[in-house]
Amino acid sequence: MRPLGVAITGFGNVGRHVAEMLELRRHGYRERFGVDVRITGVCGSAAGLVDSNGLSAKRLQERPAFTPGLSGDLFMSAVRADILIDAGPSDYRTGGASLTYLRAALRRHMHALVVSKGALVTDLRNLQHLAAANSVSLRFSGAAAAALPTVDLIEHNLAGTKVLAIEAVLTGTTNFILNEMLQGGLDIHEALRLAQEKGIAEPDPTFDIDGWDTASKLIIIANSALGMDLHLDSLPRQGIRSVSDIDVEQWRTRGVAPRLVGFVNRQTGPVRAGIELREYPQNHPFAGLQGSMKAIRVLTEEMGELTVLGGASSTPATAAAVLKDLDHVLSRITA
Ligand SMILES: NC(=O)c1ccc[n+]([C@@H]2O[C@H](COP(=O)([O-])OP(=O)(O)OC[C@H]3O[C@@H](n4cnc5c(N)ncnc54)[C@H](OP(=O)(O)O)[C@@H]3O)[C@@H](O)[C@H]2O)c1
């Protein structure tokens, strides 16, 4: 049985879920692809663990067994792996440590699966060139709305079509907060607190409620699947921070549902893209999005309009999106 090593950089919520799920699916990979997928290394910001024979889920739960200092370049030199899964923090200004890990991995002919968004927002095009030059895959479903298919939808299901417009609810947290305000009668602070209690919102919610999260996902989707060149600092961006009780009352009276959406429109005239708080009538598919569900509507010249709803935010769903990418890589490797 051919062994296949997987390294994970960033071993927090998502990284751990990926490791657990990988172990559960290991037998299936053997049967379906004829490969023995094993985790050969994981690292956090200050420590890591490598073993070419594979690290069991039980061993990976033993944080104290991690080797201090085995992170960054040291980790990348020590680990023997065919695939890198990057689940470190998202640094939207510089790409952060993730960018360094990804560059190093691709140069070493490792396939890369990315959950963190920063490196993709800042340097996607160069990473794609690096992957192509080294004949490996760079996939990032986990960073592009995870359980909601976005890039895959355009690149596979709508392959070959001309995409005229995209409109998408990409952040589950903002959808949850808006729903709680409209349906649950909470003000924005109460709705945010509830989202945090349920583990949907981060302790620092700025990134979600000011529209940065939606913007970064839209950039990843548009720049990869549509070949665009959007930048975080120049993308027009609205958030939901300033939504007031008066706004909510007006939406209720008019019977519309507010949604924070990322959009690209290249139907006529100059291309427009941005993040806007839009209103939808009750018969629009976006109006019915419950909880932290997401959605994407794609308009193509040849196939008309396609809308996908679902992909609620959760760590297990994100981990599963990473392993969806792994399935594609295994298909490629073993074809
Ligand atoms: N949670 C989700 O559902 C979700 C969904 C989509 C995308 N994402 C993205 O996925 C990434 C991980 O999310 P998470 O929820 O798992 O976050 P998390 O629990 O905070 O985990 C991130 C981990 O990265 C590690 N790290 C920090 N600096 C590092 C470095 N220089 N080298 C290696 N590891 C480093 C941290 O390790 P230490 O503990 O050692 O500092 C931490 O354990 C984020 O970029 C997030 O935006 C998450």
Overview of this protein structure:
By secondary structure, this protein is an alpha/beta fold. It has two domains: 2-146 and 316-334, 3-Layer(aba) Sandwich (Rossmann fold); 151-312, Dihydrodipicolinate Reductase, domain 2. It is 41% helix and 22% strand. It is built from twelve helices and twelve strands. α5 (118-133) packs parallel to α10 (212-225) and α7 (172-183) packs across α8 (188-197). The longest helix has 21 residues, at 13-33. It binds NADP nicotinamide-adenine-dinucleotide phosphate (NAP).
Give a nutshell description of this structure:
Helix content is 41%, strand content 22%.
Tags for this model:
335 residues, alpha/beta, Rossmann fold, Dihydrodipicolinate Reductase, domain 2, 2 domains, 7-stranded mixed sheet, binds NADP nicotinamide-adenine-dinucleotide phosphate
Low-pLDDT ranges: none
Strand order in the largest sheet: 4-3-2-1-5-6-7
In terms of structural class, how would the helical and strand content be classed?
A: alpha/beta
By DSSP, the count of extended strands is 12
Bound molecules: NADP nicotinamide-adenine-dinucleotide phosphate
Termini separation:
15 Å
Helix content: 40-55%
Q: Tell me, what's the shape? A: globular
Helix-strand layout with pairing:
Elements: E1 2-9, H1 13-33, E2 35-43, E3 47-50, H2 57-60, E4 67-68, H3 72-78, E5 83-86, H4 96-107, E6 111-114, H5 118-133, E7 138-139, H6 151-157, E8 163-169, H7 172-183, H8 188-197, H9 206-209, H10 212-225, H11 245-254, E9 256-265, E10 272-281, E11 294-300, E12 304-310, H12 315-334
Parallel strand pairs: 1-2, 1-5, 5-6, 6-7
Antiparallel strand pairs: 2-3, 3-4, 8-9, 8-11, 9-10, 11-12
The structure holds NADP nicotinamide-adenine-dinucleotide phosphate.
NADP nicotinamide-adenine-dinucleotide phosphate (NAP) is lined by residues 9-15, 43-46, 71, 87-90, 97, 115-117, 142-143, 146, 313, 315, 318.
